[in-house]
Backbone:
């Protein structure tokens, strides 16, 4: 059995670790609330934009001339991966990295062999992991979470779109964690470019005779980039909220484990203390017996 | 007439107005009560709305506009 002093030291160290995990949980909870607020703020815009796109594109084969709907032979691929800047959030980052790697291996193995797969990483962790694996990583927006706003998301999206329009990439895929609730993240892989019109949109709105100014086609051409920017912004916000949710759960679990550990250690401590006392008494009694004899 | 200005980050304005002047892609135009349904695109510029005799200006950075049933909806990427 460990000595009294050793056990006491371990108890102190577990205690201080628990304090840290508890504090981190609180911080994550506060940040999570803010992140959730941002998602809620974005929702009306997203909803209206999608409605508008559905209405404008109704019945017509539009957007055909947009540079973002052109399907090309896939030679160069860009993976936009959203991870976090910091660890200690459970399997959050490793899950997303694993998903991205599996997706690349499943769909773009030939492009990967030629070195034509690039990664644009939002968040430090993903960038580190992919650099280690020898995949080209664009780090321009790695620090996006330190300056999280629609402006930066827009900047990143515009860069991706420009690169696609120039033909630098033939397909762009976003990999991120979708925020479902505090404990659940859904890993999502979405192909954002080329943009394919989803026929499933059954948001049949009342057929209103709109005046289009300038023209329907031109409006659609304006709306498409907006939709892409929004997709990227949504991925970033969702991932941000997911990260804090994951960290909260991880830290909660850690605090719980710390409590269990502490309980076990306390029992051990009391046992060895009792053993020492018993030993001492035995010694005294033994000594007294010896004197009597 | 109801005017609503939304960006991805916040709801900028929502309220009753008498008239809106918008920076359209092909030049400025005004929307008054009972305007026909319309969809249009905006460029960066000043959006002016009037309530009574009061005029307020919001600078919008591009966007789209939808007018339907006396509701004017502006989806801007940012307001300055």
Residues:
């Amino acid at each position: 059995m460990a000595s009294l002093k050793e056990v006491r030291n371990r108890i102190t160290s577990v205690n201080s670790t628990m304090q840290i995990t508890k504090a981190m949980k609180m911080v994550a909870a506060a940040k999570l609330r803010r992140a959730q607020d941002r998602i809620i703020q974005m929702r009306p815009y997203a909803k209206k934009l999608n409605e508008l796109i559905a209405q404008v594109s109704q019945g017509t084969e539009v957007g055909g001339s947009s540079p973002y709907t052109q399907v090309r032979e896939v030679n160069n691929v860009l993976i936009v991966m959203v991870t976090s800047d910091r660890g200690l959030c459970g399997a959050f980052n490793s899950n997303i990295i694993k998903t991205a790697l599996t997706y690349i291996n499943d769909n773009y193995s030939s492009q990967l062999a030629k070195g034509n797969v690039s990664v644009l990483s939002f968040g430090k962790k993903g960038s580190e992991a992919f650099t280690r694996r020898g995949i080209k990583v664009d780090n321009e927006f790695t620090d996006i979470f330190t300056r999280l706003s629609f402006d930066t998301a827009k900047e990143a999206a515009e860069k991706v779109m420009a690169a696609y329009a120039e033909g630098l990439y033939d397909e762009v895929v976003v990999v991120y964690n979708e925020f479902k609730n505090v404990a659940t993240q859904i890993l999502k892989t979405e192909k954002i470019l080329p943009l394919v019109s989803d026929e499933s949109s059954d948001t049949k709105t009342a057929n209103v005779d709109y005046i289009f100014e300038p023209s329907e086609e031109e409006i659609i051409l304006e709306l498409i980039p907006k939709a892409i920017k929004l997709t990227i912004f949504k991925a970033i916000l969702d991932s941000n909220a997911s990260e804090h949710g994951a960290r909260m759960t991880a830290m909660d679990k850690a605090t719980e484990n710390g409590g269990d550990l502490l309980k076990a250690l306390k029992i051990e401590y009391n046992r060895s203390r009792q053993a020492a006392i018993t030993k001492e008494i035995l010694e005294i009694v033994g000594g007294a017996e010896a004197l009597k004899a | 007439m109801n005017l609503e200005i939304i960006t991805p980050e916040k709801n900028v304005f929502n309220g009753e107005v008498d008239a809106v002047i918008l920076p359209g892609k092909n030049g400025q135009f005004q929307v008054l009560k009972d305007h026909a349904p319309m969809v249009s695109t905006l460029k960066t510029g000043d959006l002016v709305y009037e309530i009574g005799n009061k005029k307020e200006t919001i600078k919008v950075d591009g966007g789209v506009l939808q007018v339907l049933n006396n509701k004017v909806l502006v989806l801007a990427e940012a307001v300055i």
